[in-house]
Amino acid sequence: MPGAGTAHCPAGAEAVGMRRWSPAARALTLTGWLTTLVSLPLWLGWQSSMPHGWWIAGVLSLPLLAAGPGLWRAKLYTHGWCSLLSLAYMALGLMEVFATSVGRTPAMVHLLAAVALFMGCVLYPRLHNREQAAHAIHRDQTRPAAREPAES
Q1: What 8-state DSSP symbol labels residue 145?
Q2: 3-state helix, strand, coil in the chain (%, to 5)
Q3: Are 32 and 120 a contacting pair, CB within 8 Å?
Q4: Is pTM, for the whole model, over 0.85?
Q5: How many CA atoms lie within 13 A of 76 on its CB side?
Q6: Could you read off the pLDDT of 54-99 as tens digits, one per residue?
Q7: Whether 121 contacts 87, CB under 8 Å
Q8: Radius of gyration (Cα) for the chain, nearest Å?
Q9: Backbone phi, then psi, for 33, in 5-degree steps?
Q10: pLDDT per residue over 29-54, tens digit each?
Q11: Do 82 and 121 contact (CB within 8 A), yes or no?
């Protein structure tokens, strides 16, 4: 059956024409990271009526700042732990969306940014590894076979 098993692990001829989705997932990760990082001070520091909102936003931004260099360099390990970190930011946004009516719109922006960060951090390593495996299979299949040594 042609194309059998291509949904899970593309190989052979299907790998040659395979569309690369990892750059889109990486763009989603970086967009979600930057939007989450920007939305925290704008929401908690500027829009919120919380006392010391700027300090809280600064402290909450520190883990995102620590993840930044690894995400920009496309480190798979950083994507892994940043996906777990994004769950805390999603919980914060979800709590504020349902708990208060004053900051609902900035909280919704923050929640959507954290969801984008989570999805990108989960999808990028998966798609990147799948594409690398397909590339290795294609490279091995197109490599010319080694010649047998001539017998004397």
Answers
A1: P
A2: 75, 0, 25
A3: yes
A4: no
A5: 10
A6: 888 899 999 999 999 999 999 999 999 999 999 999 999 999 889 8
A7: no
A8: 22
A9: -65, -50
A10: 999 999 999 999 888 877 766 778 78
A11: yes
